[in-house]
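Contributing new complexes? Match this layout with uracil.
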Amino acid sequence: MLSDHETLADILAFHLEAGVDVALGEEPVDRFSESAAEKAAPRARAAAPQPAADRPSPARPAPPPARVELPAPDLVTPDQAASEAREAATTAPTLEALQALLESFEGCSLKHTATRLVFADGNPQARVMLVGEAPGRDEDIEGKPFVGRSGKLLDRMLGAIGIDRTSAYIANVVPWRPPGNRTPTPQETAICLPFIRRQIELANPDILVCLGGPSAQTLLGIKDGITKARGRWMDYHTGTRVIPALATFHPAYLLRTPLGKRMAWRDMLAVQQKLAETPGEKG
Ligand code: URA
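Output block (do not edit by hand):
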């Protein structure tokens, strides 16, 4: 028989795997202990005919509920946030300034559910920059991109062509973890896009690798899915320079679909070859 400790650990592990890792309230609520009668009561009250004494008489209508005055919220639409992001991002003269700017940017609500900003890892001087979609749970805890299971696979993929985190610069389109690892919404992506574009421009790599379909679609403006888009060299325009860019499978996809590794291996070889034949600005 399982001990209480093991049962609780199992339940917690199940919640984590299901993506339930954010507390919504300060105090836990034991819904199981609420009696059926309590749960049914409000519905029964609403459905039951009111006694005549409780019914508002037509002559004396019930007073309207008291209005609670709330402070006016500081409303910013996603479009306004995206335009603020565009303006702010271009003002950052260095990667450090861009990171500081993101730390104080309030336009993306993901910031409030994430533990911390996940800006980048690796070497900003590297010739290769890889960009994923958004941090997951491990990245949110450590504050670095691709440190969980898919990060370990990414390290092995890079290692196969002689690259490690001293010779690669790694970031994500969205630098805050979406709650429960959900896909970032189009609005969240649009708000974060100016920042990753500026990050690429400032890092100024010789080669850009988009990890997965969402990264490729966002950065390269393509509509194709990753199976069609991967392995083809495309142009990425920073605004000041054109960088060769390649999309490949996201390591998380490869963990679920090992058959894709053969094609990802070809993509890595293409990156290696391009590095050898492109003198580049960092060459
Ligand atoms: N998946 C991503 O797209 N980025 C990370 O940093 C980790 C997992």
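Reviewers usually confirm one structural detail per submission. For this one: The CA atoms of residues 49 and 55 lie 9 Å apart.
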